[in-house]
Amino acid sequence: MDIQGEKKSETSVFKKYWINLLLEDHRIGNEGIFEFVIVDAPDWVMIVPRTTDGKYLLVQQYRPAWQELSLEFPAGRLIEGEEFEQGAARELTEETGYAANSFELLTEARPISWSRQRMAIYQAENLIYKGQDLDDEEAIEVIAASSEEIREFIRTGKMYQMASILAYNLICNQ
């Protein structure tokens, strides 16, 4: 059975700000040509910042798609031309006010199958407070939590963003 695929055509159907919605025709195996909706958006980073007393910094912010507050690790999209680690350093300071002296790459991944995005998750340590520098559309509360508290947040559904749960599991399984 042939399971390979090949893109045959691509049409942008919506583009605004940093997101581009595409319709693409792909040949899949020997079965024919099928249309797929693809999201083309910037790559992004997530940071798991750990303080010297062993607590992790989380951010709580309003997520318009969910119409509710979300408790998660700091994260954000890369600026054009920015490398993952540069974006991690920038986002950490923007969202939490902290800079880190060390970043360790935990993983690079593709977060969802219908998007071209890539993501990288970093652990950040040796934190130094510099002051938050939020983007205009951000209102963020920084929360320091122990590993036990994060486990409880996940168990009770208070922390439910999938990438943050993945990041926490990567830390626990090092």
Q: Spell out the helices and strands N to C.
A: EEEEEEEHEEEHH
- The multimeric state of the shown protein is single chain
What strand order characterises the main sheet? 7-4-9-8
* Low-confidence segments: none
> Radius of gyration, rounded?
18 Å
- Say what the CATH topology of the largest domain is: Nucleoside Triphosphate Pyrophosphohydrolase
How confident overall, as mean pLDDT? Answer: 95
CATH superfamily label of the largest domain? Nucleoside Triphosphate Pyrophosphohydrolase
Report on this model:
The chain contains three helices and ten strands; from the N terminus they run E-E-E-E-E-E-E-H-E-E-E-H-H. The protein is α+β, with helices and mostly antiparallel strands and 174 residues long. It folds into two domains: 5-40, no CATH class; 44-172, Alpha-Beta Complex (Nucleoside Triphosphate Pyrophosphohydrolase). Strands 7-4-9-8 form a four-stranded mixed β-sheet, with helices on both faces. A three-stranded antiparallel β-sheet has the order 1-2-3, with no helix packed on it. Strand 2 (19-28) and strand 3 (32-40) form a beta hairpin. It is elongated, with a radius of gyration of 18 Å. It starts with a strand and ends with a helix. The mean pLDDT is 95.
